[in-house]
């Protein structure tokens, strides 16, 4: 690509000047580098960006800052969304701008070393080659931005406003209130007590329910894998059945089964032992029921996962252990267990994260109930179902958003920490 | 105790555990079947083995003019098909770019996918509701599908990228020498070789609308747009005990096809998950 022609001619060409020019207006640096078409393209791009989106961005930023000034006319929520879209647009434009500056600099450096500009055809080829991955990710990225990223930013913003059932647009304007909602959550007794209770139960729920389902799955996978067991295929099919039935159906069915008045568990089963347990009315028993149901729902996936891994462990390991006189427990402890954990760790972490946010089971079983007098959440509410209630039942949007942020931070922090340890992730990090 | 005796005891214990599990698994399922065959609508008078069993609830679901069950089934099928199709396309495009190209923002993009898949969907619900309202797609199946397609990207992009990574690069190079471009490699090498994982993604996304309850409940408002999950939930939400037998019949008709698909494809699913998730 580099030609020998006239190395002296461009030796005074300055990358710094090219960068400055491009900083002043996109494309100027490229013009200075004598890449006229590229430069004009950049200029057209910036001009059209300013002309078409300038007003929208200006309005959006104003809206985001003030959240509106005239009630009924300015809708704070829409303004906030416009503002966030503006921010995303600016971030995108800024990214392009930085690319433009870097491009000017690199090009200038190349010229300074005496290389000449590539021909038109080569340029097009280059743009196609290097732009290709962007072309491929653009549609997905676009959807991701509007369906995942923008909503998360929106929730983030809501947590710092006073948006609740008494103060909602278009009748009222929202205000930025800083960290007030978070402070309320920690200091105001009615909130902090509930928050603490719900938080503790969420942690207990996640740890107990998930560990139980993993333990049961592992145990069953091990015993079914025993060479002496016959009809393995049939047994496995049945054991996977709870996974195959849609969870929302099973949860609703369990909810009916545990019902105190007409549920089969009290009416048909426990009556044999002369027992009657208030599954739905007593928070303690409701929690026990939930953990049992989740174990029922969750173990088959783990079972199937482990079964697959168990079959892939080489016999040699066990034969070697037998030669050394290893006990069955030792074989499990030093061969089986590390193998299955190593292969499935990320998926098991996902199980914990999934239960931490297992809205379906809590909501469909009992809608987070039973209600507890003096508390703002139901007896079995976990953070996520509480957030749902706060948002969609009593419209405490700001508090719900604040709790959501705390929830999101916990999940991401935990998951990230764990993922970093797994191999596939490390490989990615090193690239 | 002789060794043989011990072994026999162990095997019996294993079978006993398995038997207990069978009972625990089948009891709720059979109970539902029993309920659905009860003639009355009420749970109070229903029993596990009804004396004069009937299929009237099933008939009602399909033939009664008040029943919207078939409509919901159609809605769910449509959402599921469209979702599966576009999800596979979008996801494989992204995964291909992330697996085979080095570009600015690649590493952070991967981190971002990982992070985003951890965020619970509910975090976004209020905003999605407002956004859909803003563009007039609230209470439409299109809106629901859009959210599904966008929301599945972070998780599935990782999965598919992991699988693409296992396809040897030499194949790409060979194809390039034979004159294939970026698109050619994608369509003629990557897609055919990644069929197992794309099948998994398609299946997941096909199943999601049948299983998901939260999102359609928020997005869909009018009964004629409901998917099965929301429709069935509303069946029993108002008068729990009074519609239960009908609900049982309706849920069996969803559960059976889904369960069959899952059982037939579970080996496939698990292999796909472990291969994509951990790279063996």
UniProtKB/TrEMBL annotation, chain A:
Its main location: membrane. It is found in: Cell membrane. The chain crosses the membrane at residues 15-32, 39-57, 77-102, 134-160, 198-222, 234-258, 288-313, 334-354, 397-417. Residues 199-418 form the ABC transmembrane type-1 domain. It comes from Melghiribacillus thermohalophilus. GO terms for cellular component: maltose transport complex. GO terms for molecular function: ABC-type maltose transporter activity. InterPro entries: MetI-like, MetI-like_sf. This is Maltose/maltodextrin transport system permease protein. It is a multi-pass membrane protein. Belongs to the binding-protein-dependent transport system permease family. MalFG subfamily. Keywords: Cell membrane, Membrane, Sugar transport, Transmembrane, Transmembrane helix, Transport. Signal peptide: none annotated. Part of the ABC transporter complex MalEFGK involved in maltose/maltodextrin import. Probably responsible for the translocation of the substrate across the membrane.
From TrEMBL, chain B:
Keywords: Cell membrane, Membrane, Sugar transport, Transmembrane, Transmembrane helix, Transport. GO terms for molecular function: ABC-type maltose transporter activity. It comes from the Bacteria. It is a multi-pass membrane protein. GO terms for cellular component: plasma membrane. SUPFAM superfamilies: MetI-like (SSF161098). The chain crosses the membrane at residues 12-31, 77-98, 110-132, 144-164, 185-207, 244-264. One of its GO terms (biological process) is maltodextrin transmembrane transport. Residues 73-265 form the ABC transmembrane type-1 domain. Pfam families: BPD_transp_1. Gene3D superfamilies: MetI-like. It is found in: Cell membrane. PANTHER family: GALACTOOLIGOSACCHARIDES TRANSPORT SYSTEM PERMEASE PROTEIN GANQ (PTHR32243:SF34), MALTOSE TRANSPORT SYSTEM PERMEASE-RELATED (PTHR32243). Belongs to the binding-protein-dependent transport system permease family. This is Carbohydrate ABC transporter membrane protein 2 (CUT1 family). It comes from Melghiribacillus thermohalophilus. The lineage of its organism: Bacteria, Bacillati, Bacillota, Bacilli, Bacillales.
């Amino acid at each position: 690509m580099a030609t020998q022609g006239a190395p002296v001619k461009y030796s005074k060409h300055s990358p710094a000047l090219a960068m400055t020019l491009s900083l002043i207006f996109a494309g100027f640096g490229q013009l200075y580098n004598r890449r006229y078409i590229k430069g004009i393209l950049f200029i057209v791009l910036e001009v059209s960006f300013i002309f078409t989106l300038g007003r929208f961005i200006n309005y959006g930023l104003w809206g985001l800052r003030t959240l509106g000034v005239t009630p009924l006319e300015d809708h704070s929520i829409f303004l906030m969304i416009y503002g966030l879209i503006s921010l995303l647009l600016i971030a995108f434009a800024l990214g392009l701008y930085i690319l433009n500056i870097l491009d000017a600099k690199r090009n200038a450096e190349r010229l300074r070393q005496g290389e000449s500009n590539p021909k038109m055809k080569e340029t097009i080829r280059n743009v196609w080659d290097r732009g290709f991955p962007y072309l491929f990710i653009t549609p997905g990225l676009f959807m991701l931005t509007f369906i995942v990223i923008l909503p998360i930013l929106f929730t983030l913003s809501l947590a710092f406003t006073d948006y609740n059932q008494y103060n909602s647009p278009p009748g009222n304007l929202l205000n930025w209130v800083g960290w007030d909602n978070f402070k309320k959550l920690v200091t105001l007794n009615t909130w902090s007590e509930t928050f603490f209770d719900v938080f503790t139960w969420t942690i207990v729920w996640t740890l107990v329910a998930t560990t139980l389902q993993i333990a049961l799955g592992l145990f069953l996978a091990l015993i079914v894998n025993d060479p002496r067991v016959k009809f393995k295929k049939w047994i496995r099919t049945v054991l996977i059945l709870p996974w195959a039935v849609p969870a929302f159906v099973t949860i609703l069915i369990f909810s009916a089964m545990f019902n105190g008045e007409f549920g089969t568990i009290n009416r048909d089963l426990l009556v044999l032992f002369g027992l009657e347990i208030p599954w739905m009315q007593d928070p303690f028993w409701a929690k026990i029921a939930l953990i049992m149901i989740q174990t029922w729902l969750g173990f088959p996936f783990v079972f199937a996962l482990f079964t697959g891994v168990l079959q892939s462990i080489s016999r040699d390991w066990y034969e070697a252990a037998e030669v050394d006189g290893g006990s069955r427990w030792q074989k499990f402890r030093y061969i089986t267990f590390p193998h299955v954990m190593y292969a499935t760790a990320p998926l098991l972490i996902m199980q914990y994260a999934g239960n931490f946010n297992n809205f379906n089971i809590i909501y469909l079983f009992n809608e987070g109930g039973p209600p507890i007098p003096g508390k703002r959440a139901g007896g079995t509410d976990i953070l996520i179902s509480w957030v749902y209630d706060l948002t969609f039942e009593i419209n405490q949007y700001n508090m719900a958003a604040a709790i959501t942020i705390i929830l999101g931070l916990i999940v991401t922090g935990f998951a990230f920490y764990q993922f970093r340890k797994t191999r596939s992730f490390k490989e990615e990090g090193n690239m | 105790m002789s060794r043989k005796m011990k072994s026999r005891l162990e095997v019996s214990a294993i079978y006993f555990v398995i038997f207990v599990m069978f009972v625990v698994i089948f009891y709720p399922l059979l109970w539902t079947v029993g309920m659905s065959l009860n003639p009355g609508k009420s749970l109070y008078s229903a029993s596990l083995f009804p004396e004069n069993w009937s299929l009237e609830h099933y008939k009602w679901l399909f033939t009664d003019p008040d029943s919207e069950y078939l409509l919901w089934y159609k809605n769910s099928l449509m959402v599921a098909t469209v979702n599966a199709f576009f999800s596979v396309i979008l996801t494989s495009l992204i995964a291909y770019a992330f697996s085979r190209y080095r570009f600015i923002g690649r590493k952070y993009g991967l981190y971002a996918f990982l992070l985003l898949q951890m965020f619970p969907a509910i975090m976004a619900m209020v905003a999605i509701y407002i956004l859909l309202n803003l563009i007039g797609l609230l209470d439409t199946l299109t809106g629901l599908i859009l959210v599904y397609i966008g929301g599945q990207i972070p998780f599935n992009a990782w999965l598919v990228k992991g699988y693409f990574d296992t396809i040897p690069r030499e194949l790409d190079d060979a194809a390039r020498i034979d004159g294939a471009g970026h698109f050619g490699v994608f369509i003629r090498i990557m897609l055919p070789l990644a069929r197992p994982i794309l099948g998994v993604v398609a299946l997941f996304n096909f199943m999601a609308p049948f299983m998901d309850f939260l999102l359609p409940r928020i997005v869909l408002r009018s009964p004629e747009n409901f998917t099965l999950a929301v429709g069935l939930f509303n069946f029993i939400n108002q008068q729990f005990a009074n519609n239960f037998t009908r609900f049982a019949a309706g849920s069996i008709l969803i559960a059976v096809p889904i369960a069959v698909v899952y059982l037939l494809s579970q080996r496939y699913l698990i292999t796909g998950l472990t291969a994509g998730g951990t790279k063996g």
